[in-house]
Amino acid sequence: MRVDATILFDIEAFDAPLMPKGNHVSHGDTTVEDLTDTANALGTIALNRYEGMKAAQYLEDEFDVPAIIGPTPIGIRNTDTLC
Q: Is the pTM of this model over 0.85?
């Protein structure tokens, strides 16, 4: 799709120092600067309303970044809702 995006996972590389041998599931591409720059995003899609809703709502309220907050796309109903 060639979309410039910042994707935030539950566990990122900056969390890895909390684990003695690093975190084998961290994705490692998101930096603190990337997080700061989310205030300049064209929009936010939160794929899990419980973990992502607060961040998406904050960006919308504080920086006018439009937010789509939906259920996790697992199962037919939730996947259809996202689409």
A: no
